[in-house]
Backbone:
């Protein structure tokens, strides 16, 4: 079993171990539930031998009445097992869901999209169902097996020697088959996921597929995936057929052994009633639980084995919490020295040899083509990643050493995709500064230019439905929220790119007139024109200067802003 | 009986699987017969053994068990094969049709919806094939068991008939009462995963603010409710299960007790008593016939959802090829109707071969519609579009695909490796051409920086919206056909990158380029600009000429305030 598999099983085991008491209660009810399995053969034997066969109907019927009573006891016990199973699997589901949610929030952020989340929550659900089914199947099998063995022994120990070996053999054979079953189930599921992915890709990509006239090619690709899925299912079906043979060995062979051995048993003084009673044990109790066991393990057990691996991916890999003395930044001067950063050990550094100093209350625009490392620099300045080499100081302190709770009091990073959650407008705005007063919120909204939006939403107390907001509207809320925060260093990472140029200018000016340092990663060149300092990243080197110097020293920059002045509508 | 299209689809499906069906039916009827004979043989075997009269019946019973097992295994192998063959055919046909739907036909179905139909409804429809077999065999078994029961003794049948219906009713009540609980449970679960998706969209904000724990609590705030709903449903299941689990043994005991009486009379043997219990169980199947009708109803529902798509009109093609001209596009009096009036209203436009035109206009003026008509993504309601004199709708699908390359604001189907994604629209493209296109679209550097370079699977390297746009652009540039249509395909590209890309596009002489855009820089570089206003061509002239018109300038200009502040900024220079 692989390492990541182990994580998933550990999660389940830990949760189950915490429910030891419930498990004990469940075992007790299961014992009672097995009463009919224990009593049935004995009572049937008694009813026949001492009742019906002797013409004593009353004794026969009283035996059957006792049997009915046993069934009643079993049924009542069975009824009480349900809430106990609930008391075990519902907390398990809670634990798993908690694991998935913290995995998403803390994790590496690789969860590509919403559908990955939907899958993760479905997996939690299927683990819950599978554990419940397995728990029920296993306990019923074990208790029924014990009860029937006890009953058969009570009828005559010889019967046990005759009927139990096939059950044992079947158990061993099934254990041997299990590995192959798991493998094939896994293959079938991944084939199925591939099909789902291909189909979704083809349908979502409809326009582009048609545009390039590639329908036939895509149908062929998807059909190949479908055929592979079918082949995987067929392989699984073959393994399942083998399972039926094993079930027959464990379920039906005991009956044959009993009947073939009947003369021998009768020669040892075993009665007609005892034989019918033994047949009752074997065919009405043992055979069904044997069948159920292989079905449950072959179904839910396999499902669990496959899903657990996925769940392991959701195990919260916590970020190392930074220790050390509690540093508090003084002032807002930003110093960057010989900064180098790469994503992963082998990768080409995204930033290299970068140095600049931004004075207190400065206003910096970072300009450069996509993918050049602007957002990476923002993340480093906000202390969300640690430089590989060189150093960053914000107010004299390394930002990555700030405790997370303190960090948001000093530095706020507003990313391009703004986060608006279902809640009131107010809650969204107070996100970074829970203590902010009504007036502060009002000022922020007005300064950033979100008044009309907030009014349209129905005011501060209105409920926000994120999916009904446009990207620009979300950005306005994100910007207002950053304005409300107490942070003195504000980093806008293309945080206004979905606003029109007028609205963008208003928002930037709002932050500029607010005390503290403003760093803008520019989407439009016009953002650079507003800044005091400009950091131009163009891949080969970085230039840090003001607008006037850059226009003279960088052809790229000159072309960019020259162009931009036309974009915003001037003719010189 | 009135056949709906869905029924006809089901009938065709059954016919397609007729041979399979007959095979399945044969195997399963044999199994039923065997299953029916089993309790009788068991009784004979028990009696024979108890009386010490040899082992003829027991050997027969053993043989029957072997045959039954063989039947079960055969069925387990054939039934899925047979269904999956039918389903595979259905899925292929469905996908093929779905991909050929007209844009308007397709607009009625969301992608997720179509995927659901393709994956789920085909399976439901295909399951109609073994349904008849299942129905026939279960009827044979349960009916036969009832007959066998009365053959042993009529009194046994009576005991059965009293108990049976009650059992079925109780089981059905179970399904009815448990479902509201399940619905509530699912609703809470949906809320939780909805919030988790929301968190994902803001993950950068959350990380930056260090509010992870707060967010976990917010997402899981409904967890106690979910817990309660789950626990309640277990309790209810326990209660309902009590009745069901009492009823079955009650019936069995009733039959055994009756058999006991009869045994006293000496009318039946101890072996037959065991057989009676067996037959009673089999006859219970008679009351679960309703499930089969449910399955049939589900198959019909599935088939009707498939039919909805299959009966929606697809895009047709002619069989002509292009004469190999310069790539001159002619829109003649093209009108495209939208749900609220015309999207394009009698547009006449002649685009000279090898030239570049920009299509500009306010949002909703019909720019994308014009692009779609020009490359026959859609057909006009009136008028026609000709490429080098050939109406686009007369072109074969291959000729059309080879003629027009596209890039979109939001490209889709960027699948396979990066090399495959860029070369998607071009048959037999060389690697060097792929790289050239990627360089022109400014994604070469990005792709080369990936672990396997151009051989990296797209799925392994999630791209931002802007990067995807440039990858889609590279795909369009790699196409190399006489016509290239860019529908706002540079919208997310930053100014510097845009500068480089538009230079590359300007260098593609020999290709007729239609660039839908909001950007002045692109309009400025085009040979001519088609200015659309409410579905009509307001002007078709070079940018410099149009620039004199205030309305035209306003298309690219922000409001007066912005101009003011920017002027101030610039005066500082």
Residues:
């Amino acid at each position: 079993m692989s390492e990541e598999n182990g994580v998933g099983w550990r999660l389940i085991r830990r949760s189950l171990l915490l429910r030891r008491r419930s498990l004990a209660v469940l075992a007790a009810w299961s014992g009672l539930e097995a009463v009919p399995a224990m009593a049935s053969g004995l009572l049937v034997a008694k009813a026949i031998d001492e009742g019906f066969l002797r013409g004593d109907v009353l004794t026969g019927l009283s035996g059957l009445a006792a049997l009915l009573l046993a069934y009643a006891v079993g049924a009542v016990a069975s009824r009480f097992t349900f809430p106990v199973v609930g008391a075990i699997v519902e907390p398990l589901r809670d634990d798993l869901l908690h694991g998935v949610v913290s995995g998403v929030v803390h994790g590496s952020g690789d969860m590509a999209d919403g559908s990955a989340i939907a899958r993760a929550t479905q997996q939690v659900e299927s683990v819950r169902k599978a554990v419940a089914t397995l728990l029920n199947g296993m306990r019923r099998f074990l208790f029924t097996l014990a009860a029937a063995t006890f009953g058969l022994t009570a009828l005559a120990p010889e019967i046990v020697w005759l009927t139990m070996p096939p059950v044992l053999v079947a158990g061993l054979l099934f254990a041997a088959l299990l590995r192959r079953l798991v493998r094939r189930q896994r293959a079938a599921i991944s084939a199925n996921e591939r099909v789902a992915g291909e189909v979704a890709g083809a349908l979502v990509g409809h326009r582009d597929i048609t545009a390039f006239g590639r329908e036939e090619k895509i149908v062929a690709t998807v059909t190949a995936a479908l055929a592979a899925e079918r082949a995987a299912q067929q392989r699984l079906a073959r393994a399942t057929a083998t399972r039926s043979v094993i079930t027959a060995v464990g379920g039906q062979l005991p009956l044959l052994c009993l009947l073939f051995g009947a003369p021998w048993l009768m020669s040892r003084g075993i009665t007609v009633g005892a034989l019918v009673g033994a047949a009752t044990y074997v065919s009405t109790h043992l055979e069904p639980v044997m069948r159920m066991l292989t079905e449950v393990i072959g179904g839910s057990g396999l499902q669990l084995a496959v899903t657990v691996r996925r769940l392991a991916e959701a195990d919260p890999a916590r970020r190392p919490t930074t220790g050390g003395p509690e540093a508090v930044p003084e002032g807002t001067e930003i110093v960057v020295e010989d900064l180098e950063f790469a994503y992963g050990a082998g990768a080409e550094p995204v930033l290299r040899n970068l140095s600049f100093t931004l004075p207190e209350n400065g206003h910096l625009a970072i300009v450069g083509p996509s993918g050049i490392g602007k957002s990476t620099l923002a993340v480093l300045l906000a202390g969300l990643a640690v430089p590989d080499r060189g150093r960053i100081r914000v107010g004299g302190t390394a930002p990555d050493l700030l405790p997370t709770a303190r960090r948001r009091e000093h530095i706020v990073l507003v990313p391009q995709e703004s986060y608006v959650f279902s809640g009131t407008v107010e809650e969204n705005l107070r996100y970074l500064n829970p203590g902010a007063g009504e007036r502060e919120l009002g000022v922020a909204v007005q300064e950033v230019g979100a008044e009309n939006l907030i009014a349209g939403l129905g005011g501060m107390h209105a409920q926000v439905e994120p999916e009904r907001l446009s990207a620009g509207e979300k950005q306005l809320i994100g910007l207002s929220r950053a304005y409300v925060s107490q942070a003195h260093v504000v980093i806008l990472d293309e945080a206004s790119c979905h606003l029109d140029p007028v609205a963008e200018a208003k928002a930037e000016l709002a932050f500029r007139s607010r005390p503290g340092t403003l760093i803008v990663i520019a989407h439009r060149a016009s953002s650079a024109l507003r800044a005091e300092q400009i950091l131009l990243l163009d891949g080969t080197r970085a230039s840090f200067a003001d607008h006037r110097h850059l226009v003279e020293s960088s052809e790229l920059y000159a072309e960019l802003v020259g162009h931009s002045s036309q974009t915003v509508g001037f003719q010189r | 009986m009135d056949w709906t299209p869905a029924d006809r689809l089901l009938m065709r499906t059954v016919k397609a699987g007729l041979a399979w069906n007959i095979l399945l039916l044969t195997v399963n009827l044999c199994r039923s017969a065997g299953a029916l004979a089993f309790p009788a043989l068991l009784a004979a075997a028990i009696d024979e053994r108890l009386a010490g009269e040899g082992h003829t019946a027991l050997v027969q019973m053993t043989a029957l068990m072997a045959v039954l097992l063989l039947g079960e295994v055969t069925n387990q192998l054939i039934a899925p094969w047979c269904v999956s063959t039918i389903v595979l055919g259905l899925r292929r046909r469905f996908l093929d049709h779905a991909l050929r739907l007209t844009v308007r036909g397709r607009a009625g179905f969301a992608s997720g919806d179509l995927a659901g139909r393709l994956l789920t409804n085909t399976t439901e429809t295909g399951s109609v094939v073994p349904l008849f077999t299942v129905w026939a065999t279960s009827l044979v078994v349960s009916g036969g068991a009832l007959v066998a029961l009365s053959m042993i003794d009529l009194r046994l049948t009576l005991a059965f008939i009293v108990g049976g219906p009650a059992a079925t009713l109780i089981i059905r009540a179970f399904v009815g009462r448990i479902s509201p609980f399940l619905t509530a449970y699912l609703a809470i679960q949906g809320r939780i995963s909805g919030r988790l998706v929301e968190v994902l969209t803001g993950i950068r904000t959350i990380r930056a603010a260090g509010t992870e724990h707060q967010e976990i609590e917010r997402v899981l705030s409904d967890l106690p409710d979910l817990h309660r709903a789950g626990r309640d449903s277990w309790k209810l299941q326990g209660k309902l299960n009590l009745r069901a689990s009492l009823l079955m043994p009650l019936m069995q005991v009733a039959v055994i007790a009756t058999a006991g009486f009869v045994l006293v009379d000496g009318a039946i043997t101890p072996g037959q008593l065991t057989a009676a219990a067996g037959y009673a169980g089999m006859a219970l199947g008679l009351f679960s016939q309703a499930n089969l009708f449910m399955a049939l109803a589900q198959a019909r529902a599935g088939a009707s959802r498939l039919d909805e798509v299959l009966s929606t009109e697809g895009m047709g093609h002619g069989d002509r090829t292009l004469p190999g001209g310069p790539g001159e596009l002619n829109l003649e009096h093209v009108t495209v109707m939208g749900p609220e009036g015309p999207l394009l209203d009698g547009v006449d436009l002649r685009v000279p071969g090898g030239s570049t035109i920009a299509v500009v206009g306010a949002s909703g003026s019909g720019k994308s519609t014009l692009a779609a008509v020009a490359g026959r993504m859609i057909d006009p309601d009136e008028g026609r579009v000709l490429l080098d004199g050939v109406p686009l709708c007369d072109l074969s699908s291959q000729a059309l695909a080879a003629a027009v390359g596209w890039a979109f604001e939001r490209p889709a189907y960027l699948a396979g490796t990066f090399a495959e994604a860029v070369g998607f629209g071009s048959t037999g493209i060389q690697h060097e051409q792929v790289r050239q296109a990627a360089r022109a679209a400014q994604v070469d550097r990005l792709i080369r920086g990936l672990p396997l370079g151009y051989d990296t699977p797209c799925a392994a390297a999630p791209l931002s919206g802007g990067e995807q746009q440039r990858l889609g652009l590279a795909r369009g540039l790699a196409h190399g056909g006489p016509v290239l249509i860019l529908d706002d395909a540079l919208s997310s590209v930053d100014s510097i990158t845009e500068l480089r890309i538009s230079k590359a596009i300007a260098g593609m002489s020999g290709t007729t380029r239609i660039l839908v855009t909001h950007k002045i820089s692109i309009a400025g570089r085009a040979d001519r600009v088609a200015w659309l206003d409410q579905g009509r061509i307001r002007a078709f002239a070079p940018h410099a000429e149009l620039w004199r018109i205030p309305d035209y300038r306003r298309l690219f200009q922000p409001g007066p305030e912005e101009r003011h502040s920017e002027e101030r900024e610039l005066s500082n220079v």
In short: The first strand of chain A starts at residue 334 and ends at 341.
